[in-house]
Design goal:
Strand order of the largest sheet: 1-2
CATH topology of one domain: Cytochrome Bc1 Complex, Chain D, domain 2
Structural class: mainly alpha
Radius of gyration: 36 Å
CATH architecture of one domain: Orthogonal Bundle
Largest sheet: 2 strands, antiparallel
Shape: elongated
CATH superfamily of one domain: Cytochrome c-like domain
């Protein structure tokens, strides 16, 4: 304790003064160890003994990719076509799943009820990239040049299908505060238009014509 004396140094910083005492031994030891570790770390980086950040990041990404590929191989492959999507439109479970996926991933741009925001309104009859289920699936999967990301690299295939089901269900809901229409108008075919027109009257026979 003789080395510690109540001798105040001859300087003053805004009323703050300090004693002329040596630094604690534990503090010096930590400082020396830090300098030694810095030298070891630098040599290890240069000799590739210690992995660099980029290498460590790539290894992590490769591991994640391998896990994703293994998961995809273990799942049955989903073949997406018009028939498959049209059949899915009436699935209540897919509709519920699609709503949950939409609220989690899409509502920030399209609104909580698909009324539009940064992205277009999905509830009217105007479409920028096609209104058919297969066209909606392509738009979600591949993204667009106007800023929508390709979700096929983020969402599992079954969740993309469920989104198609939900988006298709929002058409005609007309929520409050909906964004103005964008794109081309799509007029759903009426039920009557697909039926063959029936003649109003039975065609007259030759005998009936001769009577006239």
């Amino acid at each position: 304790m003789d080395q510690y004396q109540d001798k105040i140094l001859d300087h003053n910083y805004d009323g703050i003064q300090e004693f002329d005492n040596p630094m604690p031994g534990w503090w010096k030891a930590i400082f020396v160890l830090t300098v030694i570790w810095a030298a070891v770390y630098l040599i290890g980086i240069e000799l590739n003994i210690i992995p660099r950040y980029g290498d460590d990041l790539k290894a992590g990404q490769d591991e994640l990719l391998a896990m994703r590929q293994a998961h995809e191989k273990s799942q049955p492959k989903i073949v997406v076509d018009d028939a498959m999507l049209l059949a899915a439109l009436g699935d209540a479970d897919k509709l519920a799943q699609g709503k949950e996926v939409f609220l989690t991933n899409c509502a920030s741009c399209h609104g909580n009820v698909a009324q539009g925001g940064i992205g277009p309104n999905l509830t009217d009859d105007f479409w920028l990239y096609g209104q058919k289920p297969i066209e909606i699936h392509k738009t979600i999967s591949k993204g667009t040049a106007n800023g929508m990301p390709p979700w096929e690299s983020v969402l599992p295939p079954e969740e993309v299908v469920s989104l198609v089901v939900f988006v298709s269900s929002t058409r005609g809901t007309n929520p409050a505060g909906a964004k103005e229409p964008q794109g081309e108008k799509y007029d759903p075919p009426s039920k009557d238009s697909s039926e063959t027109e029936k003649p109003d009257e039975k065609a007259p026979t030759p005998a009936e014509e001769s009577k006239g």
